[in-house]
Protein 1
Amino acid sequence: MNEKKTTSVCVVRGGADEKPYEENFEVPFEDGASVLDALTWIRSHKDSSLAFRYSCVSANACKECMVLVNDKVDYACTARLDPDGVKVGPLKNKRLIRDLVTDIVPPKERISDPN
Ligand code: FES
């Protein structure tokens, strides 16, 4: 019997003015799959409102996918999914926009002050 493997992804969610909450998703698991693979699967199959950012995918060039993976700063596109589950949250030292999206633009590159 060919049983499909799954793993759980706990995502810390919420908006800038909301109390953060954790939401658990059961996602397909394959060896070598990235945390970003799981997030895109969640957005496609479970909740299209899940906010996260990425651009280059595995080139380590854009740094847009930077999040906390099990409470450590990591790139979602290169961090591997764990068969025992993983927790993903927004960066803590950046202004939260929504869910996993934080304001990562360096102050000198900002066109105008967001406040
Ligand atoms: S998507 Fe660019 S570093 Fe991860």
Protein 2
Amino acid sequence: MAGDTSPLFRARVLFVTGKGGVGKTSVAAAVGRLAAAQGRRTLVVEVDNQHPTLPVIFGKPTAYEPTEVEPNLSICNIAWAPALEDWVESIVSMRRLVRLIMKNRVVSLFLQVTPGARDLVMLWRTLQLAKRADLVIVDLPASGNAVAMLSVPLTAERLFPAGPIRRCADELLEMYARSDTRLVLVALPEEMVVNETLETLHKLERDVRGLTIPLILLNRASPPTFTEGERSLLSALEAEAPPGTAMAEVLGAGRWEEGLEAATGDALARLEVTHRPVVSLPSLSRADGARKVTTQLAAAMARASGVRVDFRGGT
Ligand SMILES: Nc1ncnc2c1ncn2[C@@H]1O[C@H](COP(=O)(O)OP(=O)(O)OP(=O)(O)O)[C@@H](O)[C@H]1O
Ligand SMILES: [Mg+2]
């Protein structure tokens, strides 16, 4: 699996998104493990996730405050209510006053229903966390929601000429513009997923200007192993093999593998229009659990990037 993933694990803030179920959390955790193994203080963050996956991968529950799960590696889940309280406190730095404001139902209702307020506060929290770590990896919601969330600071900048929301938006846009703030799109070699990846990239470039998107990850890719000759042989043998025999079954497995390779080839060809490197990640067995998948993804990224790390003890 060729391709340098160092722009991901050498970032300072890394946003991860993609279609639902493509492997966003696994990739976020894998990049986190890789960065931590290289001595970077790393934090992997889920955003207000009702069914967080990081605890499944690392075997420890997540809370609002980071929990260390491995040397140099912590995880957390940004919940909306405490993030809002922290944000208000950053504006009116008196705890007692913050409680009074938060208790005021009109104020909290205003913040809850104002479009974008929630997303802005969540992003603000990631920015605060980034000040305490070498790398913060934000496991964003699936693409559509992620674009909506990331575009809020730009909208807020247009709507608010001054005030705390405007200051927060400005700070976030400054973060987006830094070259070490990056976003990675995770895709799969499937037509619908590639469609959504291309669409998301277009929307990000249109609505979330300034964010660096150094590469695309093609997860569960099957690199070509069949030669042209082997493909012709497969077709010739298929024509001969009587249906229902062991031979036909073996050939069927070969055809299945060939189909996966062809799908990977199609996806790689279609993603060329992004003018970005597409790094393939292997399709792994899920039988050993989510943690093992993450370890193997981290090892694959390390190999592809020429980095030597030891995931011993990290099964
Ligand atoms: N390369 C891979 N090979 C095999 N299985 C994988 C691979 N990458 C991820 N998986 C598995 O696929 C499942 C979904 O992965 P994951 O939870 O990371 O996706 P997600 O994009 O975060 O999903 P959601 O949109 O629900 O948050 C998990 O069981 C994970 O272990
Ligand atoms: Mg996930």
